[in-house]
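Example for tutorial group B:
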């Protein structure tokens, strides 16, 4: 049986050439590896339209390591962070700020609503001590696309620094430093870039990074020191994730071949269309209206049919070669299906067919959820 397709928010399905790019061992001082570091860092900054103003600093670890490195390095110990929260990843930034001892406030909206630019505007008016604002571009908890352009414009107007967790959409959703001013963007190798897990990165305004010496709460998550290391000798400060970087280098070739951010985003939108239409035909209802739905991951409401049991559903799909993801919502019971990674329309059609067959096996006639205010399905 081949590996199942991962319809999840990560780790994700990668191409065979990306996996094959890892079949070598590099020394950390190897010239070809140092050149690869330089190339990958430059390409990532270019993807964000930030090559003239920002630098890309990679960090060993999962995406959260990069978020923690960015918050700890860029928000000074005397600073104050305001986080816009509408899901688990916004909440995680609040948690990081607390653990590392940064003064942190947050503005929360419901998980099925975008963050509020108007509330942000008021908060910045009222509190001149807020130095930094953090927001999640696509909140993977639900798949919701937040209005980062409006948020960035408000931060710029108030002269506050903006940190964007663009983890789940980087490389597929447009985000350009020349149009959406930001101090830093945090992302990772293994979401829309379709590399393998093990490396996060921060694209950070060089002036802000220069001013951030000595801020960090941590030795290994000090972005300033990590950057100085790269500038001095092109090397990582500590053991580099050599194979992960090689895979990302290859994944960036594939990204460019597909037409960059526009091409990758277009494939994911086609995947989303097939998923939404196919699931709707089976009665399933997504949590979000189309206007808020990013082409990354879809949250479906749990079917009302009492014969539906998520564990059987999950197992049935797993046996048919598709891995889905439980919901992470606090507002309603749900599950999630992603449309990112090396997946195309044929895979999504296969996934929808597997859903139909699994429902049949369970004796569930429809995926329709309980209607609001209705106690009988
Ligand atoms: C995946 C993701 C992260 C990082 O999660 P890790 O498990 O640490 O890789 C952060 N923010 C968002 C929005 C994400 O989707």
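The residue assignment follows.
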């Amino acid at each position: 049986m081949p590996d199942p397709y991962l319809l999840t928010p990560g780790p994700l399905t990668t191409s065979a050439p990306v996996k094959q790019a890892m079949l070598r061992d590099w020394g950390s001082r190897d010239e070809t590896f140092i050149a690869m570091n330089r190339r990958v860092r430059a390409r990532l900054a270019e993807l964000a339209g930030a090559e003239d103003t920002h630098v890309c600093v990679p960090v060993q670890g999962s995406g959260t390591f990069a978020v923690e490195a960015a918050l700890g390095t860029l928000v000074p110990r005397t600073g104050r962070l305001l986080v816009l929260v509408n899901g688990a990843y916004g909440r995680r930034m609040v948690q990081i700020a607390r653990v590392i001892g940064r003064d942190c406030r947050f503005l929360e909206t419901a998980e099925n609503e975008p963050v509020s630019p108007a509330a942000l505007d008021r908060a910045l008016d009222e509190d001149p001590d807020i130095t930094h604002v953090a927001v999640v571009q696509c909140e993977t908890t639900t798949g919701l696309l937040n209005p980062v352009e409006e948020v960035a414009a408000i931060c710029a107007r108030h002269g506050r620094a903006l940190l964007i967790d663009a983890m789940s959409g980087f490389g597929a959703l447009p985000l350009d430093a020349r149009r959406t001013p930001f101090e830093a963007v945090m992302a990772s190798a293994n979401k829309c870039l379709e590399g393998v897990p093990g490396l996060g990165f921060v694209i950070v305004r060089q002036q802000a990074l220069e001013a951030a010496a000595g801020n960090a709460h941590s030795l290994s998550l000090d972005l300033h020191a990590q950057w100085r290391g790269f500038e001095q000798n092109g090397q990582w400060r500590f053991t580099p994730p050599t194979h992960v970087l090689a895979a990302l280098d290859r994944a960036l070739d594939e990204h460019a071949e597909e037409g960059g951010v526009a091409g990758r985003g277009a494939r994911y939108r086609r995947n989303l269309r097939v998923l939404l239409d196919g699931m709707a035909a089976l009665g399933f209802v997504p949590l979000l209206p189309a206007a808020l739905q990013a082409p990354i991951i879809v949250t479906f409401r749990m079917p009302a049919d009492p014969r539906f049991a998520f564990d059987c559903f999950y197992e049935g799909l797993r046996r048919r070669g598709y891995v889905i993801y439980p919901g992470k919502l606090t507002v309603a019971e749900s599950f999630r299906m992603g449309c990112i990674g090396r997946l195309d329309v044929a895979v999504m059609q296969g996934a929808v067919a597997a859903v139909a067959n699994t429902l049949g096996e369970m004796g569930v006639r429809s995926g329709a959820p309980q209607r609001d205010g209705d106690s009988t399905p």
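The mean pLDDT is 96. Compare this with the pattern of hydrophobic and polar residues in the output above.
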